[in-house]
Amino acid sequence: MFVVGVTGGIGSGKTTVTNLFQQHDIVVVDADVIARHIMDKGGEALAAVSDRYGQQALFEDGTLNRAWLRERIFQHPEDKQWLNELTHPLIRQQILTQLQQAQSPYVILSAPLLVENRLTKLCDRVLVVDVSEATQLERTQQRDDVSADQVQSIMNAQASREQRLQAADNIINNEADEAQLVTQVEKLHELYLRLALAKRSTH
């Protein structure tokens, strides 16, 4: 399978870009969606959280209290490490399964932490959706109705813009309007179809 990794910092418009690829009938495997579902009721990850923290980590209906857990790992670095060690292998396994099951000429792996979590190893190409840090701040504040400080701390926890761009094979500039974005995606779609075809013919 020819895999295109798509990443970008918070507020860069990564989802807008992957939605445009989906309009070309390309399967998108979204690491964020997988990470959310890893904690679904009845799964091993939620059972492990419940064993470690008891009822305080859950709502009355047995689902995860995400706000409680977020606060907990924010205040206790060792808990964050424990949670990462629990969830990362499960997320990775699910990503691999979904990539293998994808039925499109190529497949997109969308992950905000593609570079940080070394998921680039799973990709044939890396596409970075790039905007300035000022744009990241402004868009995220508007979208999530949060303070600049909060957005800044999330940005600080992610790879820097420079680190992402160094890992990129292709870059989409998402500062401009929707029409220019559509054009950029169409060009890359054509490129990835050719590359995927070339990869298949050599195997």
UniProtKB/TrEMBL annotation:
Origin organism is Pseudidiomarina maritima
Q: Which UniProt keywords apply?
A: ATP-binding, Coenzyme A biosynthesis, Cytoplasm, Kinase, Nucleotide-binding, Transferase
Task: Quickly give the catalysed reaction.
Answer: 3'-dephospho-CoA + ATP = ADP + CoA + H(+)
| Enzyme superclass (EC) | transferase
Q: Where in the cell is it found?
A: Cytoplasm
Q: Which residues bind ATP?
A: 11-16
NCBIfam families referenced in this protein's UniProt entry, alphabetically: dephospho-CoA kinase
Q: Which HAMAP family is this protein grouped with?
A: Dephospho_CoA_kinase (MF_00376)
Q: Does the keyword ATP-binding apply?
A: yes
- Stated role: Catalyzes the phosphorylation of the 3'-hydroxyl group of dephosphocoenzyme A to form coenzyme A.
Name of the coding gene: coaE
Protein known as: Dephospho-CoA kinase
Pfam families of this UniProt entry? CoaE
Pathway named in the protein's UniProt entry: Cofactor biosynthesis; coenzyme A biosynthesis; CoA from (R)-pantothenate: step 5/5
Provide the GO MF annotations for this entry.
Answer: ATP binding; dephospho-CoA kinase activity
Q: Which family does it belong to?
A: Belongs to the CoaE family.
Q: Check the record and name the InterPro entries matching this protein.
A: Depp_CoAkinase, P-loop_NTPase
Entry's EC annotation: 2.7.1.24
Q: Which cellular components does GO assign to this protein?
A: cytoplasm
* Any one biological process term the GO annotation gives: coenzyme A biosynthetic process
